[in-house]
Amino acid sequence: MAKAKSAKIVANSKQEISSKPEPSNNTYYYIGLAIVLCLIYIIRSNFVNIPFERDEGGYVYLGNSLLNGGITFKDILSLRLDGIFYAYAALISIFGYSVKDMHIAFLVLNVGSTIMLFFLTKKLSNNMGGLAAAAFFSVLAMTPNACGFTVQSEHIVAFFSIAGFLALLHFLDHKKIALLILSGTLFSFAFQIKQTAFFYGLFAGILFVYKCFFVDKIAIKKILVYVVIYGVSVVASIVFDLYIVYRNGAWDDFNIWFVDIRKEYTSTVSFAQGLEYLKMVFGAIYTFYKFFWVASFLAMITVFFTSIPTWKKLMVVGLMLSGFLTVTPGYHYYGHYFLQWIPAVSICGAIFVFSIQDLLQKKLKLTTASTLIALSLVVFPVYSNLSTLNSYYFKPNYTQILRAVYGNNPFPESKVIADKLNSIMKEDDQIAMFGTEVQLYVYTNKKSPSRFVGSGALLQFDIPQAKAWQQEFISDVEKVAPKYLVFYSHAISWLANPKVENLIFPW
User: Fold this and answer.
1) For residue 210, how many C-alpha atoms fall within 13 Å in the half-sphere facing its CB?
2) pLDDT tens, residue by residue, 328-377
3) How is residue 258 annotated by DSSP?
4) CA-CA distance, 157 to 146, in Å (whole number)?
5) pLDDT in tens, 244-299
6) I need a surface site. Which of 39, 240, 396, 403 has the fewest CB within 10 A?
7) Phi-psi group of 176: left, alpha or beta (phi > 0 → left; psi -120 to 50 → alpha; rest → beta)
8) Sequence-separated (6 or more) residues with CB below 8 Å from residue 38
9) Residue 10's CB: how many other CB atoms inside 10 A?
10) Residue 490's CB: how many other CB atoms inside 10 A?
């Protein structure tokens, strides 16, 4: 009898060992990941000198201002929480303050996001799923009409959101409180950079409560403790940041910018207008990436035919839906907003590949064929996309790309003007820029004479402070008396509201 039990134990242990992936099998997928990372390096290296658009220029300039002692919401003005400027300040302190330096920083950031995405999707499915997610992300995150080639803040949001979900899955495996705190903190960072990341953090909270209650059968009291810990870890850094704003004497300014003006900004587009924007922008984003998007939508159905646990199936659907919700607030649907959704799209596209592999392997017993077919669903769409957009990825014409994505916005011209100024300016010469092309100050490494760096925004909102702020800007420029003035005669660079009295143009 004892011998029989012993034999059974040995048999079970052999079965468990044999079910684990072979080290050599893992190695092949890690080699695949390394190839994907090399691809990202090659592609993004071709874009290290592409000029900034105005948002990028603003974030980089204001991040550098923070490093030089600027106070957020007093000297550094924004409709967002100031975590965005701390993020750019951190990148500038590590990589440097130039167009090339920042593009290198975001190359590294994209590589980090891809690695985490590989391990996150691997935990949801298998090695093939992880490789597929990394491969899909490598091209989707460079989508031209989603401004993938830029150093937009949504790339940072994607980085922290992926990291937050990866930490959460490790917590669900090991139930270590430190991992839950880490996950909440990462989602908090994403939220502080862009507030629409709230939907990822919310979904993460719902997911772990569902898993703990319905799957792990953990006692409600313990789950409530987890919820409190997660909530505190999300809120703590936000409260600390707002306390710093208060201590700096910028609370009133914070209320004006983050509450009053933000409300004005979010009310400018109706739902119907937003729907038209969504159709137009998504159509442009979807055009050359059809397979990846279709696969991601199909995955919300095919995942329910796989052998993975139900909670993981729900996570796949929830990722796709919460990713979409990060794009929707305000109904503006700018292309770069979609960069927040793309990690979820990459994961779901990969789950579709995994679904096909799982179906062939478990239902039809086609072990080798299932792997080859799944691999072909990764390699051929990526290869086809690279071939179709070969000139964009590998021989980019910066001006043509900026024109195609941003129309006649003066982004190429800003770099030309800056190069000319750099060739004639002396070290002590000052400049003043009229408009919202803040990137000019980054290119010339000059400081704005006024805290209203993007003066064009002074005419955008019909608020009580509009007149006084224009007068302050005028006074600041007159005090500095800059040797060079650069005026952008472009409607979008000003977005002048007819209800706002224009003091700058007559001056």
Assistant:
1) 16
2) 999 999 999 999 999 999 999 999 999 999 999 988 889 899 999 999 99
3) I
4) 14
5) 999 999 999 999 999 888 888 888 899 999 999 999 999 999 999 999 999 999 99
6) 240
7) beta
8) none
9) 10
10) 16
270-274, long-range: CB within 8 Å, 24+ apart, which pairs?
270/331, 271/331, 273/331, 274/328, 274/330, 274/331, 274/332, 274/333
CB 60 within 8 A of CB 443: no
CA distances from 192 to 85, 244, 432 (A): 10, 14, 30
* Ramachandran class of 97: left when φ > 0, alpha when ψ lies in -120 to 50, beta otherwise: beta
Q: How far is CA 489 from CA 311, 428, 434, in A?
A: 55, 27, 9
Q: Is-contact 340 196, C-beta < 8 A? A: yes
- List Cβ neighbours of 245 (8 Å cut-off, separation of 6 or more): 72, 73, 82, 251, 254
Classify residue 76 by its DSSP letter.
Answer: B
Burial 227-265 (b: 16+ CB within 10 A, else e): eeebeebbeebeeebeeebeeeebeebbebbbeebbeee
Q: Exposed/middle/buried for 121, CB within 10 Å: 0-12, 13-18, 19+?
A: buried
Of 130, 313, 327, 328, nearest to 211 by C-alpha is: 313
Spatial distance between the Cα atoms of 78 and 92, rounded to a whole number of angstroms: 19
Which tokens belong to 490?
């472009």
For residue 216 the two structure tokens come to: 């792990």
Show the tokens assigned to 497. 């509201």
Structure tokens given for 40 = 């990202």
pLDDT digits (tens, 9 = 90+) for 160-187: 999 999 999 999 999 999 999 999 999 9
Q: What is the CA radius of gyration of the chain?
A: 25
The phi and psi torsions of 484 (rounded to 5 degrees) equal -120, 135
Judged by DSSP in three states, 319 sits in helix
Amino acid identity of residue 353, one-letter, is: V
With 0.85 as the threshold, say if the pTM is over it: yes
- Assigned token pair, 270: 């109706």
